[in-house]
Amino acid sequence: MCIGTHYINMILYFCNIEQSYTNDYMKKYLVTGGAGFIGANFVKYVLAKWGSDVEILILDALTYAGNPMTIKEEIELPNVQFVKGDIGDRELVTRLMEEFDPDFVVNFAAESHVDRSITNPRLFLETNILGTQNILDCARKAWLDGTDDQGKPKYREGKKFLQISTDEVYGSLTKDYDTARPLEVSDEVERVIEGRKNLKTFGRGFFTEHTPLAPRSPYSAAKTSADLFVLAYHDTYGMPVNITRCSNNYGPYQFPEKLIPLIINNILEGKELPVYGKGENVRDWLYVADHAKAIDMVLREGRIGEVYNIGGFNEEQNINIVKSIIDIIARIMREEPTYRRLLRHPERPIDYSIIRYVTDRPGHDMRYAIDPTKIATELGWYPETPFTEGIEKTVRWNLDNQPWIESVTSGDYRKYYDEMYGNR
Predict the structure, then answer these.
(1) Which are the catalytic amino acids?
(2) Angle subtended at Cα 44 by Cα 321 and Cα 380, rounded to the nearest 5 degrees
(3) Which residues pair with 355 in a beta bridge?
(4) For strand 160-166 and strand 241-246, is the pairing parallel, antiparallel, or unpaired?
(5) Torsion-angle region of residue 341: left (phi > 0), alpha (psi -120 to 50) or beta?
(6) Contact (CB, 8 A) for 164 and 123
(7) Residue 162, Cβ neighbours under 10 Å: how many?
(8) What whole-number distance in Å separates Cα of residue 340 and Cα of residue 356?
(9) Beta bridge partners of 164
(10) Beta carbons of 251 and 394 less than 8 angstroms apart
(11) CA–CA dist 249, 258 (Å, integer)
(12) pLDDT digits (tens, 9 = 90+) for 117-157
């Protein structure tokens, strides 16, 4: 299969983005899980792009990965509201739908860590399946506007429910090559994209929107179930919905249990770097700012009832990700010694000797790789950030924002919430 992508330099994190799709009137977004990693980055993107032309209501239960400090500046804005609550709380969600009357519901809220799903799968069923069905049903009832001439439900103009999903619902791809090979670009996608060089792949196959669903962990099984509910609400009730399925995200504000921030944090702490198996598993890495842009484009321009895959064309083995982070931090510590103050044990080495291979986890998928041809050709979206650029920015963000890292790992963000919003 031939697929392709595009690269342009981003001068600022979420700024100087040209408007390429319509904004007929002020849009109101209900963003669930908006204090989490991708949700918070999406909120920042929307505000940077649309400014006062949008209103945002963030609903987040503030479980372990939700952090109000991530959106501290945003929730002080006059066009942003924050509510602590669970998407499974029917009374609360019904009230928010009535009072706020959103144009878009963007459902990021989910338990999302595979290892946690293995130890406590029931929690993933409750949040990812039942919670999604609850907010989906509340939106359906709030937006319903009678029936059409054929007796089918019709909905108020401009409303849409977007389910944020994952490529893990597709299961695992084969890893056909031990070393990466050049990725060819199709003529179809070439009409939309230009510029990115040295694209590579570890296999012949890619996830498309037509790939059969084949989840292999409790987490991905729960996300698959939620996706099927969303599609069922479209087929049964005619509800205006979309689903996006993304590859592995990375970037600012990611919870430190995930691979990239975990490796960065362990290096600073002077700890060993755990790598599953031989580190040969391949993931397609998507910079979170690129993902946020894609989500907003699907909300505003995506065809109702459609699924859109969002990938980064940045395939890499886990062990090479770890080694890249080691190399970047070692270089920064060598060339910019003021950062050495962040090392808890400066006498310890920053090299490949600190890698420790650990027993692989059950059902560990070998390879993920997304084909985003559909979103590229229909909506003109492309992943703008090559991994070499994105990982450098991510490492530096983590180094420059240690108070945020420490607040997450220490639990100070919960104290912050109680002080700032306990009486709201």
Answers:
(1) 167-168, 219
(2) 75
(3) 273
(4) parallel
(5) alpha
(6) no
(7) 24
(8) 23
(9) 244
(10) yes
(11) 10
(12) 677 777 777 788 999 999 999 999 999 999 999 999 999 99
